[in-house]
Write a structure and sequence with these properties.
- The structure holds two protein chains of two kinds.
- In chain A, helix 11 runs antiparallel to helix 12 and helix 11 packs parallel to helix 14.
- Among the domains of chain A are: 22-144, PH-domain like (Roll), CATH 2.30.29; 176-313 and 324-474 and 484-503, no CATH class.
- Chain A is α+β, with helices and mostly antiparallel strands.
- Chain A is built from 24 helices and 14 strands.
- Chain A is 36% helix and 11% strand.
- The model of chain A is unreliable at 516-573, 655-663, 678-682, 692-697 and 708-717 (pLDDT under 50).
- An eight-stranded antiparallel beta sheet of chain A has the order 4-3-2-1-8-7-5-6, with helices on one face.
- By secondary structure, chain B is α+β, with helices and mostly antiparallel strands.
- Chain B folds into two domains: 22-120, PH-domain like, CATH 2.30.29; 148-516, no CATH class.
- In chain B, 38% of the residues lie in helices and 15% in strands.
- Chain B contains 19 helices and 16 strands.
- Chain B has helices spanning 108-120, 148-154, 189-196, 229-240, 257-262, 286-300, 309-316, 318-337, 353-365, 372-385, 390-395, 409-423, 432-444, 455-460, 463-466, 470-475, 507-510, 524-553, 558-574; strands at residues 7-8, 15-16, 22-32, 36-45, 48-53, 61-65, 69-75, 87-92, 97-101, 162-165, 181-184, 206-210, 217-220, 246-250, 276-280, 342-346.
- Chain B has a seven-stranded antiparallel beta sheet, with helices on one face. A five-stranded mixed beta sheet of chain B has the order 12-13-16-14-15, with helices on one face. In chain B, strands 1-2 form a two-stranded antiparallel sheet.
- In chain B, a hairpin with a 4-residue loop joins strand 8 (87-92) and strand 9 (97-101).
- The radius of gyration of chain B is 27 Å and the shape is globular.
- Mean pLDDT of chain B is 84; it is low at 1-11, 227-231, 254-274 and 557-575.
- The chains are: A alpha+beta, B alpha+beta.
- Chains A and B meet through helix 9 and helix 22 of A and strand 4, helix 6, helix 7, helix 8 and helix 18 of B.
Chain lengths: 717, 575
């Protein structure tokens, strides 16, 4: 049965944000419902503003079905211009990528989004000139190069009312104090100092205004090569070992220059390898991890697996699903990154060495590894404010080029790489392996990844602190506009009301016990971990485990790169990493202590919530992890209301009845895609695979055999 | 007493069940694939192989029921060189191999090899299964769990369309069927006998389950023999009277029908039944499944294939078979539930794929089967009583490890159930441990539950009199097998999504021997929930106490005296 309703002539106006301008629109656009291959859908108006593309349902009166989890800025049928991934036009059943100038206008428009939604619009019933205007408008505003100042961020900041938002505990790392506090928190202040050398950006525009270096590093050396070759502090471990990063020198043609650089580096290494500094280990991430190009290629292939047009596609790709996943290489990259983080953690925790991560700019893979190491080793980074502070420290202020890496301005595809998404994917692996260890949920990570494309927050729309600062002043605009007041993404109230924000908090998270208690605990814990290596370490057997051949290689790699004269060559049993991993995993987990990801093949999973959330075929009615989560939430509320009742009984107050509305009513029927399922299908029809069995060529003889195999030869004996 | 009911005898190093006797012991080196060689002492009883390491840190223990052993081989000879190259290689049915190295002097392995072979394969040595020697006592009697008459009554049978027949009471009609059958009301016993002649091994179409509302039924049978279509109409006439469309699920791949017809097998031609629709479900036979499991073992034991895990997993086809079985069951359940039609399911003999499909469809349709006892009934009914050939498929106590009759059909069914419980974590009363325990005792031969091929043979061997039921063990300690998240839901069809996006390898079963891939025990989410439950109960108790004391203090407050019971009952119904 096909439900094509007659179009209703009704004026529906888009809800505009401050500073948002309607650019073009088209009416009688038919939007197909994704959920099946049928032609079911709704008529409505398609509009394009300087912020978003939006479909306005003609029949949008049914607001009674208000979802529990709603984004206040970007609605179900809104696509921010930065969220558009690719646009296809359908001409006579043929799909064509739409990029620049169009000569012919399509009958159908398919919009693939970076958050993996797929929109199908039929333009057959729309007036021709409206089709022209909307299609070229959408393609122009979402797909062609743009000036930074034309980002919606600026219109919004100048038009939005001056609301500084609610206070949150995120440390922004914009001031010297923030860095000093962080040094103090991690007890790194004995050997490291926050410096003001870059005030006025006189060292480099890529470096933050304030950063931390070893105390022995002089101002001249920082200034000498614009901060290149200078170890910059990320974090200090409880035992004093520090995680550092360094921007490498580009390859020099000129021999004398490179000689000088080499001498400079040797000097630096010498200085920071002397006591009180720990032995230094270097890791050149540009050679030990996949390149940005590899990451981009892998993700491009990977996301394609989830941009599904219809049910037939879903089932057609299902049979080969595992090999398709593998061929993208995305999960393998996640595994390698997690493994690298374990290696770094082992150096810091067990070997008590400093680790210096090196990368050309020190703002891509350095950010991934250093953040991941901190999430694993510092339980503060597993709280919401701690994680947000970490993102500020390593990424936003640390100078990750969000603008270029997300290609927000469509300037150059060469620069594009999902580096931040890679981090979120890795953190998700930890979140799902150790649910009680994180204050936030996977939903938090999912909406954080979505926020990459919402240009009302400055957080992910600049390449560096310098770029943000210079553009903030508004000097190039009319003077009265004054400095812009940008919003930060950490102000979650901008996007979600308090009810929806509850889904970002993990009900399983057990808060850290009181500080004095925990300190004793961690001290003992440390001790345990170090003595916990199995005494009967057998000689390495024919393991096919994950460290098989790579251990030696890794050690050689690190050894080779260490500065010869500083090596205390007696340490490092060759399989110390393997021991570290195995012995940690053989102990019960302390959710407030060190956390190591499990990285064997079956343990690395697809982040189903982010990637499968819009695919109705993948929906389980009343199933999925949300089913158990809902039960826990319900029970928690019940316990809370009992607590209130107890208090009342104690105080003998005859107050009114307690209102405690269970958050997730009728939880048994929630979709597993909750809170993202577009439409809660009421149908009880099961999803049935339509694909057919592929041949078992090598087993043909078996296939043809009867179940009742009678072995006559056996009987005759 | 250990968790599994095993008693440790005093001053004895090894656990022993009542009725278990020690046979021999020996110093060996256990070639642990994960930790390298472990010096220890191995003890053999008439039930198990038990190894304890000499070193205590860490102490290595192996506790293997002899029933799981599939094959014992000697490795190396008296003159073999190289360290630990002389000994025994034991292949197990539960996804592991054991290797023991022995001293080369004095033919030290001959005795142990002979003892192991004798007790691991009692059927090949005219010895009884351990189940017949087991003297354990349990508060619950698992043999009482399944009573066919009360199960059919629970389904509302007999009724005006279906009757219970005792025609097979002495297994005269079909020796692989149970004695009690439910057949169309109009079919006389004479009709049934006629029909039986045209079904392979006389496995006539009988009712497995009836939908409480639509009255649509799931029936099962074996494949028809060729040339019987006309007479077979008689049995169908009775069904068509109900005026429902009738679906026929033929489980083997459609391309194979020709070969079946050629070899005397037939399938229900559509032309034979005007009101019937025919489906082929493309589920492969027992040999394909066996090979698939073999490949799976190769990639997970002893070490997990690392570099290309996903494509290796795919190449075993194991999850693909799971997907097809689930897909078939969903289709059957959907026809019965939403299509309101009856279905007839058969493969070749109606005891392998048929049992998988009917039992899974029933699990999807009837929430009773998702409880612990209900599931026991389901296994007892669709598998054990309807003659799934457990003895042949598992090879209990039989040394012929290469027997082509062996196949992991029941394991595959349990895997499908696990997939469903994984997708719907609140829908099943039982937990993963319950499923693993069933699989462990599928091989162990400690209980009579899975012994022999048919009810007929079990009766002959007096299994219920002389052995214990696995359900005795489980039902005596139910809390261990209970899923705390279970919420009872009546009459809700539960359709899993049979997509590779959701199907997972059951790591906690297939890779459980690998210490590196170990799930956190207890499950932290479950643990947190239990803590909260305890907290809630504590609050309720304290609140009640408070209210009692408060009420006695304030006798005139009528409002607060009404609240405690109200609150408590509300809380209880909530769960």
């Amino acid at each position: 049965e096909i439900h094509i309703k007659e179009p209703i002539e009704k004026e529906v106006n888009p809800r505009l944000l401050p500073g948002e301008l309607l650019l073009c629109e088209a009416s009688t656009v038919y939007k197909y419902l994704q959920e099946d291959g049928s032609n079911r859908g709704t008529y409505g108006k398609l509009v394009c503003t300087n912020f978003k593309i939006s479909f306005l349902d003609d029949d949008s009166t049914s607001d009674d079905n208000e979802p529990q989890f709603k984004n206040k800025i970007v609605g179900e049928n809104d696509i921010t211009l930065q969220c558009v991934d690719q646009i296809y036009g359908v001409y006579d059943e043929k799909k064509k990528l739409l990029t620049g100038q169009l000569r012919k206008y399509p009958e159908k428009l398919i919009i693939y989004c970076k958050d993996l939604r797929v929109f199908n619009f039929c333009l057959r019933y729309t007036k021709e000139e409206e089709v022209k205007r909307i299609v070229s408008g959408i393609v122009h505003h979402s797909q062609t190069p743009k000036l930074l100042k034309r980002l919606f961020l600026f219109s919004y900041a100048s038009a939005a009312p001056n609301n500084t938002g609610g206070r949150n505990q995120t440390v922004m790392f914009e001031t010297l104090e923030d860095w000093r506090d962080e040094l103090q928190r991690t007890k790194g202040n004995v050997k490291y100092k926050a410096v003001t050398t870059n005030e006025g950006y006189r060292v480099s525009e890529k470096l933050p205004l304030y950063f931390v270096v070893p105390i022995c590093i002089s101002e001249e050396s920082i200034l000498k090569y614009e901060g290149r070759g200078i170890p910059i502090w990320c974090w200090s471990c409880h035992n004093g070992a520090a995680l550092l990063k360094m921007s490498a020198f580009p390859k020099e043609q000129d021999d004398s220059t490179s000689q000088m650089q080499k001498a400079f580096l040797d000097g630096i290494y010498k200085t920071i390898s002397k006591p009180p500094y720990e032995i230094l280990k270097l890791d050149d991430l540009s050679s030990s991890l996949p390149s940005l190009q590899d990451i981009q290629t892998a993700y491009t292939r990977f996301k394609q697996l989830f941009l599904i047009d219809n049910s037939t596609d879903f089932w057609a790709t299902d049979v080969k699903w595992f090999s398709l996943l593998e061929s993208t290489n995305w999960l393998e990259i996640i595994r390698r990154v997690l493994k690298k983080a374990i290696e770094v953690a082992e150096c810091l925790e067990i070997q008590h060495t400093n680790v210096l991560l090196i990368e050309e700019s020190a703002t891509d893979l350095c950010c991934v590894i250093s953040s991941l190491v901190q999430v694993m080793m510092d339980s503060y980074s597993r709280t919401k404010s701690g994680f947000q502070s970490l993102i500020q420290k390593e990424w936003v202020i640390g100078g990750h080029g969000f603008l270029d890496r997300c290609n927000h301005l469509h300037k150059s595809e060469k620069e594009e790489a999902p580096v931040f998404l890679l981090l979120l994917n890795c953190v998700w692996q930890l979140v799902q392996q150790y649910p009680p260890a994180f204050e936030f949920t996977e939903t938090y990570l999912t909406v954080l990844s979505d926020s990459l494309y919402v240009p009302i927050f400055s957080t992910f729309f600049f390449n560096s602190q310098h770029q943000r600062d210079t553009n903030k002043s508004g000097e190039s605009l009319k003077t009265q506009s004054g400095p812009f007041r940008f919003l930060t993404v950490w102000d979650w109230a901008v996007q979600f009301d308090s009810k929806a924000q509850a889904f970002l908090n993990n009900p399983l998270y057990a808060e850290k016990p009181k500080p004095d208690k925990s300190q004793r605990k961690t001290a003992r814990f440390k001790h345990q971990r170090q003595l916990s290596l199995p005494l009967t370490q057998a000689k390495p057997c024919t393991k096919r485990g994950f460290f098989r051949e790579e251990t030696d290689h890794l050690i050689k790699n690190i050894l080779g790169k260490r500065i010869g004269k500083f090596i205390n060559s007696s340490d490092e049993p060759p399989n110390s990493l393997r021991e570290f991993y195995d012995s940690w995993h053989s102990k019960p987990v302390d959710y407030h202590g060190l956390l190591l990801p499990r990285i064997d093949g079956p343990e690395i999973k697809v982040w189903a919530q982010r990637y499968l959330r819009w695919i109705p075929e993948a929906q389980l009615h009343g199933g999925g992890t949300i089913a158990t989560a809902a039960k826990i939430l319900d029970l928690m509320e019940e316990v809370q209301s009992l607590q209130v009742k107890m208090d009342e009984e104690h105080s003998q107050a005859v107050s009114g009845d307690v209102h405690s509305v269970p958050m997730l009513r009728n939880s048994a029927r929630l979709s597993s895609l909750f809170p993202f399922a577009l439409l809660q299908r009421q149908s009880v029809k099961p999803a049935l695979p339509t694909s057919t069995w592929k041949d078992l060529e090598d087993e043909d003889d078996l296939v043809k055999r009867d179940d009742e195999f009678v072995d006559l030869s056996g009987d005759m004996l | 007493t250990l968790k599994d009911g095993t008693n440790w005898e005093q001053n004895e190093e090894i656990p022993r069940l009542p009725g278990e006797t020690r046979v021999t012991d020996k110093d060996v080196i256990y070639m642990c694939p994960f930790n390298g060689p472990v010096k220890g002492r191995v003890y053999i009883t008439n039930y198990r192989l038990y190894l304890r390491s000499v070193e205590n840190d860490p102490v290595v223990i192996l506790n293997v029921p002899l029933g799981v052993i599939s094959r014992i081989e000697k490795m190396g000879g008296a003159s073999s060189r190289g360290e630990n190259s002389y000994g025994l290689d034991i292949t197990c049915k539960d996804m592991r191999n054991l290797r023991f190295a022995l001293k080369q002097e004095g033919h030290s392995r001959r005795d142990i090899f002979e003892v192991l072979t004798k007790y691991a394969f009692p059927q090949s040595h005219n010895l009884p299964f351990f189940a017949f020697l087991n003297e354990e006592k349990f508060p619950e009697n698992g043999w009482m769990v399944y009573n066919p008459m009360s199960e059919y009554r629970r389904q509302g049978l007999p009724n005006e369309r279906w009757r219970v027949t005792f025609i097979n009471e002495h297994y005269g009609l079909c020796d692989t069927y149970p004695s009690l059958l439910v057949v169309p009301y109009n079919a006389t016993d004479e009709d049934l006998k006629k029909v039986a002649a045209f079904r392979s091994r006389n496995r006539i179409p009988v009712l497995s389950w009836i939908h409480p509302e639509t009255q649509a039924v799931i029936m099962r049978c074996s494949q028809p023999l060729v040339g019987m279509n006309i007479l077979f109409l008689t049995e169908l006439l009775n069904l068509n009277l109900f005026g429902q469309t009738f679906y026929h699920f033929c489980l083997f791949p459609s391309q194979m029908t020709n070969s079946f017809l050629a070899t005397g097998g037939g399938y229900e031609g559509e032309d034979a039944y005007p009101n019937a629709e025919l489906f082929f479900l493309d589920i492969h036979n027992i040999h394909v499944m066996r090979e698939s499991l073999k490949k799976l073992k190769d990639i997970v034991y002893p070490n997990v294939e690392e570099s290309h895990w996903l494509s290796s997993l795919e190449s075993t086809h194991w999850l693909e078979h799971i997907k097809l079985v689930l897909t078939g069951a969903i289709q059957v359940a959907d026809k019965v539930s939403s299509g309101r039609s009856s279905v007839l399911v058969h493969c070749s003999d109606g005891w392998d794929r048929t049992a998988q499909l009917t039992s899974l469809a029933m699990l999807m349709l009837d929430s009773y089967y998702r409880t612990i006892e209900g599931f026991e009934v389901l296994v007892q009914k669709e598998w054990i009583s309807f003659g799934h050939k457990f003895a042949s498929r598992i090879g209990h106590g039989d040394k012929n490890h290469a027997d082509a009759d062996r196949s992991p059909i029941f394991l595959q069914f349990i895997d499908c159930v696990w997939q469903m419980s994984k997708q719907f974590p609140t829908a099943f009363e039982f937990n993963e441990q319950f499923l693993i325990t069933i699989l462990d005792h599928l091989y162990s031969c400690r209980f009579g539950t899975f012994l022999y091929n048919s009810e007929f043979l079990r009766e002959k061997e007096k299994v219920t009199e002389k052995t214990l039921s696995l359900w005795s063990l489980i039902n005596s300690e139910k809390s261990k097998y209970t899923n705390p998240f279970y919420s009872k839901e009546l009459n809700r069809a539960l359709y899993p999504v049979a997509s590779m996006r959701h199907l997972e390898l059951w790591v906690n079963y297939y890779i459980r021997w690998n210490p590196r891939i170990r799930q956190q025990q207890p499950n932290p989410v479950e643990q947190r929930y239990m803590e909260l439950l305890a907290l809630r109960d504590d609050y309720i108790r304290r609140l009640e106490e408070l209210q009692i004391t408060n009420n006695s203090k304030i006798s005139n407050s009528s409002a607060s005296s009404a609240s405690p019971s109200q609150m408590v009952s509300q809380v209880q119904t909530h769960f």
